[in-house]
Automatic annotation (TrEMBL):
Subcellular location: Cytoplasm
Major site of localization recorded for this protein: cytoplasm
Domain Ribosome recycling factor residue range list: 19-179
GO biological-process terms attached to the record: translational termination
The keyword Kinase is annotated on this UniProt entry: no
Family of the protein in this entry: Belongs to the RRF family.
Species this protein is from: Olsenella porci
GO MF terms, alphabetically ordered: ribosomal large subunit binding
Pfam family name, one: RRF
Name of this chain's protein: Ribosome-recycling factor
Any Gene Ontology CC annotation: cytoplasm
InterPro entries: Ribosome_recyc_fac, Ribosome_recyc_fac_dom, RRF_sf
Described function: Responsible for the release of ribosomes from messenger RNA at the termination of protein biosynthesis. May increase the efficiency of translation by recycling ribosomes from one round of translation to another.
């Protein structure tokens, strides 16, 4: 593989990683600890991720349990979850916080599937941008002949096609998960 193929592949891997991160934030009817990844708690004046303050367990398919290591942070964690855009009301029992994940309605599942499609399209655009960048880099390389540039573009296009297929597969999998009752 050429250096341009490696360049494209490295950037496209980041696109897939970003897509997985976005998919993890999509709240299905199933409890997923990753929905808490972006929520920060005001802990002694510092915005701190919940995962650094507490253990997050999934005791059943539709329930998350957050158990802080420092029990004084319980109220702050509860407040951060309430003020987030999760749409879940936490219940605090003095030791841990329970987050019940209700099953989404048919309409809500369709909205979530659309959101996943949007994330998939954004990933494809990012992959195409990586392809363009790799091709531009090859075209600017004065050591490459026109034939070499054409070979590099063909190689980068094949890599792009493979990554678009990966996005489609991930999207299909996530959509099936979202639409599952």
């Amino acid at each position: 593989m050429s250096e341009y193929g490696d360049f494209a592949k490295k950037h496209m891997d980041k696109c897939i990683e970003g897509l997985r991160h976005n998919f993890a934030k999509v709240r299905t009817g199933r409890a997923n600890a990753h929905v808490l990844d972006d929520i920060k708690v005001d802990y002694y004046g510092q915005p701190t991720p919940i995962t650094q303050l507490a253990g997050v367990k999934v005791p059943e398919a539709s329930m998350l349990v957050v158990e802080p290591w420092d029990k004084t942070a319980l109220k702050a964690i509860e407040k951060a979850i309430e003020s987030s855009d999760l749409g879940i009301t936490p219940s605090n029992d003095g030791v841990s916080i329970r987050l019940p994940f209700p099953k989404p309605t048919e309409e809500r599942r369709r909205e979530l599937a659309k959101e996943c499609s949007k994330y998939g399209e954004e990933a494809k655009v990012a992959i195409r941008n990586a392809r363009r960048d790799a091709n531009n880099k090859a075209e600017r390389d004065e050591d490459l002949s026109e034939d070499d540039v054409a070979r590099v573009k063909k190689e980068v296009q094949k890599i792009t096609d493979d990554y678009v297929k990966k996005v489609d597969a991930l999207l299909k999998e996530k959509t099936a998960e979202v639409m599952e009752i």
